Amino acid sequence: SIMAEEAPANVTLPNGETMEALADGQYDVIVLGTGLKECIVSGLMSVDKKKVLHMDRNDYYGGASASLNLTQFFEKFKAGQAPAAALGNSRDYNIDLIPKFIMASGQLVKMLIHTDVTKYLDFKLVDGSYVFKGGKVNKVPATDKEALSTPLVGFFEKKRLRDFLIYVNDVDINNPSSFKGLDPKTATARQLYAKYSLSDSTMDFIGHALALNRDDDYLDGPAIELINRVRLYGESLARYANAPSPYLYPLYGLGELPQAFARLSAVYGGTFMLNRQVDEIIYDADGKACGIKSEGAAALCKQIVADPSYFPGKVQSMGKVVRAIAVLSHPITPGKETSAQIIIPQNQVGRRSDIYVFLCSFNHNVAAQGKYLAFVSTNKEAATPQEDLKEGVKLLGQVDDIVYDEYDVMEPAADGTQDSCFISKGYDPTSHFETTSMDVMDLYKRLTGSPLDLSKAVSSGDDE
Hints:
- This protein is α/β, with parallel strands linked by helices.
- Helices cover 26% and strands 24% of the residues.
- It is built from 11 helices and 22 strands.
- A 7-stranded mixed beta sheet has the order 10-9-18-19-20-17-21, with helices on both faces. Strands 1-2-15-14-13 form a 5-stranded mixed beta sheet, with no helix packed on it.
- α1 (36-47) runs parallel beside α9 (256-267), α1 crosses α11 (434-448) and α6 (189-195) crosses α8 (223-238).
- It is globular and about 75 Å long.
């Protein structure tokens, strides 16, 4: 009689010990933690036909990047306190612990299209992109007309800015005749600005509000990096007709992303397990990770991917992020948008790193009707989060409730090639996805030995 294949009841560990098999017992990759990065990597591995076991010790998706309702949010940040009734129904809130907007033409969108996970998600444009200058919140121009009338740059500076943007748009790295006397591969960003005699405040605006640099280290980096970042902003803005900003955000918040990738993984035969403790990592004789033990069972694999919390002994702190999370009953921008980003460049407020203000609301289904969520985040520089964040919190006006928090951003001490433990970095304070996407691409390359090719992502149903 022909029997259906049974899952192996036992697995044999490298030391000869046998244990009960966890799920199928044998996988290409085991992923620990269901944070955004881990879920994207898990999805990419599935699309590459790898067999994936994906586990989380928590009984919810998202890890450090989870999305909480109001009750869960109060449990985490204000234990013992109940939310005020005036804040509305707890279930109407989806508060992202790591909120980030998505560049419409950025790497994350390409990954979403590449894995076809877009069919599980609904995106909506973000209404406002602002930058803080001279004590005021100014709209980042989205059209030529706005660029001509913006108070961000003076009358004579506008022509210089326009010439700079034309250069950025037209320069072709493979065609030296387009360089106009400045090779973007060898010149620095500072030299490119100097070529167009741009003022310090215009450099602030370009470098921080368009190129989204977090500090001024980029000035001594290659001009081509600045050019590519400014182009990404422009391409993202141009992707949808009359878009008010280059950013997208999913309805119901980012908490939808890990779940969408979980569904994708299941389609490809991956196994997902929540609420499952990892008791021990199994190593072979060469010191390479080759499996995990969990609650009396074991699963073997070739590689392990994990967020930093699963390998406390293999990670180090890159510094602290401070943040404030507030519930409001009003918008905070001059245009009264229900979703917006405000970037406060470091030089405008005498700091060494930018402050990010992120606003979303009932319009993206992340708060009760008429309510807004505001997040203010930056690198820790002062003694208290209140001190670090005050220039951003000022912009919020009257708040219904606010909490302050700080956390260490961990990074792996090694790249994973020696011990087969591939660990993601923690989340920085930026309010957009580009650094997160870079870490995912780096993880993918470390895992597979080759860079992630997203070129085929562009063709499949460009706009959802």
